[in-house]
Amino acid sequence: MAAHYNYSPSLMKLEGKVAIVSGSGRGIGRAVALKLASEGARVVVNDLEDGPTNEVAEAIRAAGGTAATCAGNVTAPDFGERFVAAALDNFGGLDIIVNNAGYTWDSVIQKMTDEQFQAIMDVHVVAPFRILRAAAEPIRKFSKAEAAEGREVFRKVVNISSVSGLGGNPGQVNYATAKAAMVGMTKTLAKEWGRYKVNVNCVAFGFIRTRMTQPIVTEADASGEVRKIGVQPALIEHLEQNAIPIGRLGTPEEAADGVYLFCSPESNYISGQVVTVGGGITF
Question: What CATH number is given for 14-277 in this structure?
């Protein structure tokens, strides 16, 4: 059951903050956008299509929050600039960046094409790189102005990895490689942007109940290609009985809570870290 967040201003830890969350029209991204909004953040919602993007923005507004939209494919060369501009133009600032958008396109290595490998790298690595590059100059300017005023203002970047990126996973050489790359990006940006008071951290998800962990169906994925999406039910049963100590898959809301930890003021002296949100799963 989806969580019902309390939007009481007295409880809001992100009041006045501006967040951009890629891939936030569905699944984990949607839960992240709703969670951040429930804590007072003004959120720029993104998905491939207008429908899911607008639905999440309306859900935030209906609950008393504030949202803007930036629909489009994160792999487009100009998307990073558009996404950052949506925050600056609508809300005049940028405090939180969550690089969440992605999908899987699995094959064993001998059957994986160059297109298949590159497509996953583009969405999981190149797109976050472009978003962060676009945000670099605005963040520098904000930080410089705040320092001149004698204020210490912390900003947050949360990159999304996976247990596949930390421990590997058969059939996912493209996805595991991309998610491992996000760990390196996180640790590098934590060192580059520490002087700007930016906490850069990474959340590696285990198995969360989304479209990617549903029983296998055939549908169009995020690239527009019609493919099989999901996993064998026997795998989920095995994971819940043998691999996940808590004994079940996580919910999107629980995944969002892991992201929120790195967006909250309590993480102001935590940077360059990777936390697995996976119910105790190891690899």
Answer: 3.40.50.720
